[in-house]
Amino acid sequence: MKKFLLVLLTSYTLMADALPQSMTTTIKSIKPDGHITLATSAPKGMSGIVVHNYGNGLTAITNAVITGTNGEATLLKYTAIPHDNIPNVKTASKVNDKVVLGNFYNNALLIAPDAKSYAEITKKFKKTWIHPDRFAVDFMRDSQSAITLDNLEKFAKLNQVGLVLIASKSGLLILDPISKKIIGKSNITVNTDKAMRPFFARFEQMDTSVFGISKVTLTDYNKAVENIRK
């Protein structure tokens, strides 16, 4: 059964009509260096959380986790929902604690070159789509000049985004913005010869010249998004 589950999970990288889904497992063992072994293998690069059960219906998130290879994962400090009024949980993660991988994978951000490409791709998948306008606001407010793994991670943590889809001529890259790893790829490609720099947003209705956003060739857009994973 576990072998079948692993095949099922890894096969989504080849399917045009599926995206990574969240999955639940437990901690099988813990090493002194902070690495753990999961009870069920998972694709490399998935991020998630460890949940400790105190009994009497009381649970708490003790760590973040990022999967590696061969069923291993790394425990990290949980920082996905930063808030000064939320107390830090001091409980250490333990064997048999629940691990939820892809806990925000239902929330996705799509980076696309234009409105047509954006609409076509978002119609293919059942996700809660975080509109790139929201990312554009942060992008411009922080005077960013390029989309990077760092600013995608920051936006994802503040907005509980689990997946970032990056549309380009080579296909649809599927990024986990917390682990900063490409965890899948679809053969869906964009069909346009124009793009908005640095990505599609609805700011065409505004004077965006002060932000340096303009129509550019698709080649420029493709170069920009391909550099995201470098």
Q: Give the count of structural domains.
A: 2
What count of helical segments does DSSP give?
A: 5
Order of neighbouring strands in the sheet with most strands: 1-2-5-4-3-6
Q: Spell out the helices and strands N to C.
A: HEEEEEEEHEHHEEEEEH
| CATH topology-level fold name of the largest domain | Rossmann fold
Anisotropy-based shape: elongated
Describe the fold and architecture.
- The chain has 230 residues and is α+β, with helices and mostly antiparallel strands.
- It folds into two domains: 22-101; 107-229, Rossmann fold (3-Layer(aba) Sandwich).
- Helix content is 20%, strand content 31%.
- The chain is built from five helices and 13 strands.
- The strands form three sheets. The chain has a six-stranded antiparallel β-barrel. Strands 8-7-9-10-11 form a five-stranded mixed beta sheet, sandwiched between helices.
- A hairpin with a 4-residue loop joins strand 4 (58-67) and strand 5 (72-76).
- The longest helix is centred in the last third of the chain and has 11 residues, at 149-159.
- It is elongated, with a radius of gyration of 19 Å.
- The two termini are 36 Å apart.
- The model is unreliable at 1-16 and 205-211 (pLDDT under 50).
